[in-house]
Write a structure and sequence with these properties.
Blueprint: E1 8-12, E2 17-21, H1 35-46, H2 52-55, H3 61-66, E3 69-74, E4 78-79, E5 89-90, H4 100-111, E6 115-120, H5 131-144, E7 149-153, H6 161-170, E8 174-176, H7 186-190, H8 195-207, E9 213-219, H9 225-237, E10 242-247, H10 264-277, E11 281-284
Parallel strand pairs: 3-6, 4-5, 6-7, 7-8, 8-9, 9-10, 10-11
Antiparallel strand pairs: 1-2
Helix pairs in contact: 4-5, 5-6, 9-10
C-alpha cells in the first residue's frame, strides 16, 4: 500500500516519454465518503481496530468498505525481508501474539465484514514461518463469522509445502500470492524472494485443490511491456484465476524510485491481454491494489 508523492517522475504517453512534476491527474483520489464508510470508521476508531485499509491509507478504502470488504494484517508489523518497494518496517519482529486470531475475528464481527482479506509480513524467523497462526486465524474467523468469506494473501513460506499445506487445509475461498514484478526486476524489487519460487507456490496451491488463486503485480518500476505480458502468461501457465495490476508509488525516499507513471490506456491494454489469456478477473488501473474488488473475485 504505497502512498508517497514524488516530486519528479516520468510518464509514458502513447508515443513518447516525458517528464512530469508530481502525480498525473489519474492518480488523484477523492476522500472516502458515504454513510457506511463513516459508520465503519467510527467503529474502527472506537475499538482501536487495525486494518491495512487505514494503516496503509489505501485509496480504495471507502469503496471497499462500502461493499463490505476489509483487509487485515497478522503476525505483527515488522517484516524479516527488505523488499525495495514495501513501506513495512524491516527488522527483528516481536514475539507472536497467540490471541491474535481471536482479535482479528472479533474485529471482523464488530465491523460486519462480509468478505475479509487477510495478509501478513514475512516471518522467516519462525520455524513454521507463521503458518500456524495463519491457519488459526482462518479458523477463528470462521467460528465467529460463519457467513464471512475469506481471501488469504500469503507470503511464499520459502516454498515449504508443509507450511503451505496449513493454508490449504483451512480452505479459504481465495488464496493469493503476489509476484509483485517481472522476472528481470525480482532480485532488485523483492530481494529475498524468487520469481520461480512464487510461481511454484501458485502452481502448488491450484494442484492441491484451491478453487480460486490470485496474484498481483506493480508497474512503473522499469519493466517493459513484453515483460509484463510474459509475467501474465507465466501466471496463466500455473492456472492462476485472478490478477491485479496497479501503479507502484514510492513509500519513502529510501525505497525504489518510480521510473514511470503508466497511462490509463496502457492499463486497459494489459486488461484486454489478460482477459484474452483466460484470467477470470483482471483488475488493471493505476489505483488498483491487491484487495481491490476482492469480493467479486469469488464469482
Amino acid at each position: 500500500m504505497e502512498t508517497a508523492v514524488l516530486e519528479k517522475d516520468k510518464t509514458t504517453t502513447e508515443n513518447k516519454t516525458t517528464t512530469r512534476t508530481g502525480k498525473p491527474k489519474w492518480l488523484r483520489v477523492k476522500l472516502p465518503t458515504g454513510k457506511k464508510y463513516r459508520n465503519l470508521r467510527k467503529l474502527v476508531d472506537k475499538y482501536d481496530l487495525h486494518t491495512i485499509c487505514t494503516s496503509g491509507s489505501c485509496p480504495n478504502m471507502g469503496e471497499c468498505w462500502g461493499e463490505g470488504t476489509a483487509t487485515f494484517m497478522i503476525l505483527g508489523n515488522v517484516c524479516t525481508r527488505s523488499c525495495g518497494f514495501c513501506g513495512v518496517k524491516t527488522g527483528r519482529p516481536e514475539d507472536i501474539e497467540w490471541d491474535e486470531p481471536e482479535k482479528v475475528a472479533r474485529s471482523i464481527k464488530i465491523m460486519g465484514v462480509k468478505h475479509a482479506v487477510v495478509t501478513s509480513v514475512d516471518r522467516d524467523d519462525l520455524k513454521d514461518m507463521g503458518s500456524i497462526i495463519w491457519a488459526e486465524t482462518v479458523n477463528a474467523i470462521r467460528r465467529m463469522n460463519p457467513t464471512t468469506t475469506l481471501e488469504t494473501l500469503i507470503p511464499d513460506f520459502q516454498g515449504n509445502t508443509r507450511n503451505i499445506d496449513r493454508i490449504i487445509e483451512v480452505s479459504p475461498e481465495v488464496v493469493s500470492h503476489n509476484m509483485e514484478t517481472v522476472r528481470r526486476l525480482t532480485r532488485e524489487v523483492r530481494i529475498q524472494a524468487k520469481y520461480d519460487r512464487s510461481l511454484e507456490v501458485l502452481r502448488y496451491l491450484k494442484a492441491q485443490g484451491i478453487r480460486r488463486t490470485k496474484s498481483g503485480i506493480m508497474l512503473g518500476l522499469g519493466e517493459r511491456e513484453e515483460e509484463v505480458i510474459e509475467t501474465l502468461k507465466d501466471l496463466r501457465s500455473v492456472d492462476v484465476d485472478v490478477v491485479t495490476i496497479g501503479q507502484y508509488l514510492q513509500p519513502s525516499k529510501q525505497h525504489l524510485p518510480v521510473q514511470e507513471f503508466i497511462t490509463p490506456e496502457q492499463f486497459k491494454t494489459y486488461e484486454t491481454i489478460g482477459k484474452k489469456l483466460g484470467f477470470r478477473h483482471v483488475e488493471s488501473s493505476a489505483l488498483v491494489r491487491s484487495s481491490y474488488k476482492a469480493h467479486k473475485h469469488l464469482e
